[in-house]
Design a protein that fits this description.
- Among the domains are: 2-51, no CATH class; 147-341 and 354-398, no CATH class.
- Helix content is 29%, strand content 29%.
- It has helices spanning 11-23, 29-45, 133-136, 190-193, 215-218, 328-336, 370-375, 384-426, 444-485, and strands at 2-6, 47-51, 53-59, 66-70, 72-78, 81-82, 85-86, 91-98, 109-113, 121-124, 140-144, 147-150, 161-164, 166-172, 178-183, 197-200, 221-226, 244-254, 257-260, 264-268, 270-278, 283-294, 308-314, 317-324.
- The strands form 4 sheets. The protein has an 18-stranded mixed sheet that branches. Strands 1-2 form a two-stranded antiparallel ribbon.
- The longest helix is centred in the C-terminal third of the chain and has 43 residues, at 384-426.
- 32% of the residues are buried.
- Keywords: Membrane, Transmembrane, Transmembrane helix.
- The chain crosses the membrane at residues 448-467.
- InterPro entries: Snake_toxin-like_sf.
- Residues 347-358 have a biased composition (Basic residues).
Length: 486
């Protein structure tokens, strides 16, 4: 919705403008008119037209609480986490998104994990309060494929692979501890901008698994996140120039206790800041400064620009992330890799993937495909070709499984059709056909009423005519009597 924001001119400015004309002495009328026109132009220049949309601002998919205004309405998920430990239950949050890092032409759409009924991210600004459940059902649906990742660390238990939204490669440069695994986005907007990058320190608390216990140890951690199958089998290589010198620090407040690291510096392609203020879960605030460099293998999300700030505000949650760089080439690389929305026709249909689909913000592991896991077991240190071969083999096996499932479904459908045909022949109903019936004759009561009404009108008219003739006779007789008597 468009709002007209009028900023009136201060009286001091108008009086100063008029005083300058008075000091100059008497002026012709034309100059006075020009001066007044100038004041009007200054007044009009203060009028700004800003577009804002009104959104629901609350916690829960069906909530309809308070309201906020922003560039876009959002539905997202918030899962307070520190590594693999949950610091609160995942919640669906509704709110407003705004900021210079948000693109101006984001389409109304919702992103769903494969075969999930609840969205994990929605953007809309077509009309006010568009982030209600009823309106969200009508916007474009985009199914996001989950990725298979190498899993290595205490959080993996006995599994060698896992499935999630993103793959991670985490290293603590102080203790030399390395962990690999899966993660899902836990905070609105912040992690979306970091996809395909290596960050130091990690941009959120969910990005480091178990290699950091507090804010001080998190400062020594580098976390890489990527969005393709087995992209974390080894540390992603950064080939772009890292020209930005950035400040790096971490500040976390949990249960009223604040921990803060020292301030150091780092170099990267971009400098970033991120902050979280939350009333949900144990962590009440999180603030981080750091640097990030991108591999170029993952696309920039369509709703974001390379630099600027993006803010999400909700009733119980507020997040903000900013990216900046003085390297124009870095901005150009990010724009060149920006995601282009796919058409509905090219999207995969539901129910054709053999992967397991987690709805919660939690990693799920494959327990049934042990043979496949052995083939792709921890390809750490292998070359890119080996990774590609492993991914191709996994895809081939998936295609074979999909074809088998499709054949089974077709056989089931044929069997069901045959059963239905047999039932129809055995329980065939017999019908007695009659001549087409005519519509019922209308009741005579209506016609009789109409005729009676017409007769009454005729009687009234007849009596009126008779009365008129009688009146004329009386008038003539009175005239005759008056003439005869005269």
């Amino acid at each position: 919705m468009s709002q007209l924001v009028i900023r009136p001119v201060e009286p001091q400015a108008v009086t100063a403008c008029l005083l300058t004309t008075q000091k100059a002495g008497k002026m012709p009328k034309t100059k006075w008119r020009l001066n007044l026109n100038l004041v009007l132009l200054i007044f009009i220049a203060q009028i700004q037209i800003s577009e804002a949309v009104k959104c629901f601002d609350c916690v829960g998919m069906d909530c309809m609480g308070s309201f906020c205004e922003g560039d876009y309405c959002m539905i997202s998920q918030y899962a307070p986490r520190w590594g693999s430990a949950r610091w609160g239950e995942p919640e669906i949050v509704k709110g407003c998104a705004k900021g210079s890092m948000l693109a101006k032409d984001v389409r109304d759409h919702c992103e769903f994990a494969e075969d999930s009924d609840e969205p994990f991210t929605c953007f809309c600004n077509g009309k006010d309060l568009c982030n209600s459940r009823k309106t969200i059902r009508k916007v474009e649906r985009e199914d996001v494929e989950l990725v298979q990742c190498v899993c290595n660390g205490a959080h993996c238990r006995n599994d060698k692979t896992c499935i999630g939204e993103l793959c991670t490669f985490v290293k603590n440069h102080k203790t030399k501890q390395v962990e690999q695994g899966c993660t899902n986005a836990s905070v609105p907007l912040i992690e979306r901008r970091a996809i395909g990058s290596c960050m130091a320190p990690p941009i959120t608390g969910a990005m480091h698994h178990n290699v950091a216990k507090d804010a001080v140890s998190l400062l020594a951690v580098e976390s890489c996140i990527c969005g393709t199958d087995y992209c974390n089998s080894e540390k992603p290589s950064i080939s772009v120039p890292e020209k930005e010198k950035c400040n790096a620090s971490v500040e976390v407040t949990t249960m009223g206790t604040q921990t803060r690291s020292k301030n150091i510096s780092c170099t990267g392609e971009f400098c970033f800041t991120a902050s979280i203020k939350s009333k949900l879960g144990v962590m009440s605030s999180y603030r981080i400064y750091g640097c990030a460099s991108f591999t170029g293998e993952d696309a920039l999300p369509e709703e974001l620009d390379p630099t600027g700030c993006a803010i999400f505000t909700s009733e119980s949650l507020e997040t903000k992330t900013c990216f900046k760089t003085s390297d124009r080439a870095a901005v150009g690389r990010a724009l060149a890799s920006k995601q282009i929305p796919e058409s509905k026709a090219s999207k995969p249909t539901k129910g054709k993937s053999s992967k397991s689909k987690p709805k919660q913000v939690e990693v799920e592991y494959d327990d049934e495909e042990e043979e496949e896991e052995e083939k792709v077991e921890k390809p750490k240190g292998k070359s890119l070709k080996n990774r590609e071969k492993a991914a191709e083999e996994a895809k081939k096996e998936e295609k074979i499984k999909e074809e088998e499932e499709e054949e089974e479904e077709e056989e089931r459908e044929e069997e069901e059709k045959e059963k239905e045909e047999k039932e129809e022949t055995s329980t065939k109903k017999s019908f007695i056909f009659q001549k087409p019936t005519q519509p019922p004759i209308p009741d005579d009561s209506n016609t009789t009423m109409i005729t009676v009404f017409v007769l009454i009108i005729i009687c009234i008219l007849g009596s009126g005519i008779v009365w008129k003739f009688e009146l004329h006779k009386k008038l003539r007789r009175s005239n005759y009597d008056s003439v005869a008597g005269g």
